[in-house]
Amino acid sequence: MAKKQFKTESKKILDMMVNSIYTHKEIFLRELISNASDAIDKRYFQALTEPSLGLDKEDYEIRLAVDKENRTITVSDNGCGMTPDELEKNLGTIARSGSLDFKKTQSELDQSEIDIIGQFGVGFYSAFMVSDHVTVISKAAGSNEAAVWESSGADGYTIRTCEKEEPGTEVVLHLKEDAEGEDYSAFLDSWKIRELVKKYSDYVRYPIRMLTEHSRKKEDSEEYETVQEDETLNSMIPIWKRDPSEVTEDEYAQFYTEKYYDYEKPLKVIRQKAEGTTDYTALLFIPSHAPYDYYSRTYEKGLQLYSSGVMIMDKCKDLIPDHFSFVRGLVDSSDLSLNVSREMLQEDRTLKIISRALEKKIAGELDKMLKEDREHYEQFYKAFGTQLKYGVYSDFGMHKDVLQDLLMFSSSFENKLTTLSEYVSRMPESQKKIYYASGETVDQLRMLPQVEAVVNHGYEVLFLTEDVDEFALQILRSYQDKEFANVSENSDELSSDDEKKALEEENKNCEELFRFMKDTLGDAVTQVRFTNNLGNHAAALSNEGPVSMGMEKVLNRMPGMEEEVKAKLVLELNLNHPIANKVKELFGSDQVRLADYTKILYANARLVSGLSLDNPSEISDLVVSLMV
Ligand code: ADP
Ligand code: MG
Q1: N or C: which end of the chain has fewer CB within 10 A?
Q2: Nearest Cα to Cα of residue 10 among 151, 178, 214, 173
Q3: Average pLDDT of 473-491?
């Protein structure tokens, strides 16, 4: 019989399949099952107007069979079937509009692109990834002609008429021989088939059945016998399609722990169903703890994407913004086609609409948890708060409106986390700014002279102990029109106008003294001055400019920082402390001693701020020399 040639486009796809460039070869089964399910849908719809064409609803099924001896897998359905003409048209020419970008030839694609394309629908020809010969026997519902289509790949196909009793289609794959690194025989294992159905086709609406062998104890005997049993491999109705009021918390928890390999049940389950311009259902989970690799590069965010119950992508990154990358779950939409390429998906309007709606929903649920279930929110925040703060900081603050109300910080108010809005609600009328201090630990920060001064003044201070904190606040700049202020930068507000004036004058009078002290310290500080906000403490460091001491540490730790970043430090002396008069006096009487004092004061101030010393032994010698 003369072989017919595939159309050009089809031949290209076929070539890719025959040469099996995808690592996801196993998806052939998903493709054939989804075609079978589509075919049943079609017959079901035909029967709505032409009842004689249909079956009883419960009789529709998809069947799988494996034959180890002959190395075949058969996928059959009692769907609409195909006439000989349709076989020719549908399998000889496959119009894969946009499914693969053929401007690029196969050799130009790199492996990761290939793999990604391979996760999407690649259609009927995917059968050739695992088979060296494919036979399709089909009979259309309402026709009495059946035909068989056969092909061994790129060199063409044949079609001839044959006998088939019932309408429907039977696809028989003859598996390739195993080769190095390619274990096609694995697909002949019914466990493997079961696993693949569970993984990709669990929620296909029709039963996927297979005769499987079980061993069973013989009646009245100790012996075992092998029996064949019809088994339905798929669960058909997905948990996210069930009426929310009928699904118990335990069922969600079980679904979650099994699907995402978590040993703990989720902290929160979120369901969303949208109808209208975009139809989709989403089932999302907030884990109760961070996965071990969450804050590392190996963690991949993403939701599973289903198209009418068939999984088309395992980790769709575009569905979830980075700041909510901890959310797990899935989206099922009938508005997405199975045969969509990665490029199309990125451009996909539907997907963008869905991801925006999900972001809003997640933010709303977190906000609700914060207001109504503080304990769980704090648990959530301990696990993922850092990510929210990174979210505020990233993309130049683009997401700050979504995130700022979800942030929490330690504070001087009480030994608990506080939100920014709670902080603001406690601000006395005289307070204009939101104060914060940054350092290694809350205990250390509590003792910082500047913190003491602000707190003694009756104002609250936020304690920032994570690297990202200060960067996030800098991007926010203000909250409810109250600017953020580092206590070591400005606490002007604490003094009265008279006090400020007196301070200014005193600083002016001592310009020469301060120049001497600054020269003693060299580049370490940009300035020395008096302040009146240090409580009982003699000296402290403050800083000027955009880089704080805390940020200096973080920035210099970052890989790829070529030049060392330096915070501009100011050595501040307490005008209300005896040290003020002491240095003035020494400036006139003993400048050698003043130089030593200056070094010690500076070293002290560094220690108080949690910074290390470059010259610890010099300092300790100086201190001891004052003692003896
Ligand atoms: P798609 O499913 O996206 O249309 P495929 O390559 O998977 O693309 O299938 C090509 C066409 O072959 C289908 O559109 C359908 O018309 C036909 N077809 C494939 N499998 C079956 C089947 N089991 N029953 C009826 N028609 C089928
Ligand atoms: Mg298909």
Answers
A1: C
A2: 151
A3: 90
34 Cα to the center of ligand 2, angstroms: 6
Cα separation, 430 vs 115, whole angstroms: 61
Whole-model pTM: value is 0.72
Query: What structural domains and CATH numbers belong to the chain?
Result: 11-232 (3.30.565.10), 239-377 (3.30.230.80), 407-493 (3.40.50.11260), 495-627 (1.20.120.790)
Is residue 453 within 8 Å of residue 534, measured between CB atoms?
yes
Residue 205 has pLDDT above 70, yes or no: yes
Question: Over 60: is that where the pLDDT of 109 sits?
Answer: no
Are the C-beta atoms of residues 242 and 254 closer than 8 Å to each other? no
For the cut 60, the answer to whether the pLDDT of residue 118 exceeds it is no
Written as one letter, the residue type at 568 is K
Query: How high does pLDDT run on average in the chain?
Result: 89
Give me ligand 1 centre to Cα 341, in Å: 18
Q: What is the DSSP string of 580-618?
A: HHHHHHHHHH-HHHHHHHHHHHHHHHHHHTT---S-HHH
* Model pLDDT for residues 549-559, shown as the tens digit of each residue: 888 888 888 87
Q: Do 30 and 201 contact (CB within 8 A), yes or no? A: yes
